[in-house]
Amino acid sequence: RNLDLIVTNWHQSRGNFLFLNTMSPYVSENVENSIEKISVFPNPNKGSFSIQTSYSDILIKIFDVSGRLIKRQNSKYVRLEKDGIYFIQIHHRTKLLHSEKIVVTR
Asked: Which InterPro entries match (predicted)?
């Protein structure tokens, strides 16, 4: 499965443009099958969201749409400064438990 990124009209003073980039998904690891339900909410959000899980020692990684790691933390409360689409990975020890797209819009 591929991911399509389409950006239009990003430079208003020079007219309309269309940019299409098709790429493979950023996640190359297998998500651990878990009975544990993990919730990321709210989504979409205004820059702040929470992760609900019974695991106490988690690692959260957040990537931008280009696959660049922009945040790494252990807190279940996340704050992002810029609007956009992000991808979150939730790890417990060495296992990837959950992966999800996050939308930040103010």
From this structure: Secre_tail (IPR026444)
Phi, psi of 13 (to 5 degrees): -80, -10
Question: Which residue range(s) make up the domain with 41?
Answer: 29-104
Write out pLDDT tens, residues 67-98: 899 999 999 999 999 999 999 999 999 899 99
* Structural domain count of the chain: 1
State pTM to two decimals.
0.69
Name the DSSP class of 81.
S
Q: How buried is 75 (Cβ within 10 angstroms: 0-12 exposed, 13-18 middle, 19+ buried)?
A: exposed
Residue 7 placed within a domain: no
- Backbone angles phi and psi of 36, in degrees to 5: -60, 130
Contact (Cβ atoms closer than 8 angstroms) between residue 30 and residue 96:
yes
Q: Is residue 69 part of a domain?
A: yes
On whether residue 44 sits in a domain, the answer given is: yes
